[in-house]
Amino acid sequence: MSDGEEPGALKERILRFVDERDWVTFAALHRHFAGDARAQTELALPGNRIVWSGLPQPIADAVLELLDEGQMAALPGNKGAYRRDGRVLNLPVERHIPPEGHAEPHWFPVLLRSARAVTAENEAG
Q1: How far out from the chain centre does Cα 29 lie?
Q2: 53: exposed, middle or buried (C-beta count within 10 Å: 0-12, 13-18, 19+)?
Q3: Model confidence over 31-88: pLDDT tens digits?
């Protein structure tokens, strides 16, 4: 990430990265775009489900926009993919979703895919 980069340009770079690599962990995305930089951010779902933490805000915002716009999808992943990419969250991994949510934060690892890749796979049958 470069200082002063336009948000649209960052979104394009993230989407290209995800599209070229497919099944991308937040660990790989974090390393590629922010290196070892850590920020006080958290991508979370209701029920105390943490997707990722520490991404610099502009990157987190760009990813959320791409997901909201339907240009990317976040699909359930596993801790092994994150281990392979060298970073895991220090939280228990979610095994099931209690109806009332988790009392303590749990990590919900996801993998990122471009909408183009998901559509192509669905059309291929």
Answers
A1: 7
A2: buried
A3: 999 999 999 999 999 999 999 999 999 999 999 999 999 999 999 999 999 999 999 9
Name the residue ranges covered by the structural domains of the chain.
7-124
DSSP lists the bridge partners of residue 106 as 49
Q: Is the pTM of this model over 0.90?
A: yes
Helix (H) or strand (E) holding 71: none
Residue 73 has phi, psi (to 5 degrees) of -125, 150
- Cα separation, 64 vs 58, in Å, equals 10
Task: Decide: 104 and 66 in contact? Cβ < 8 Å.
Answer: no
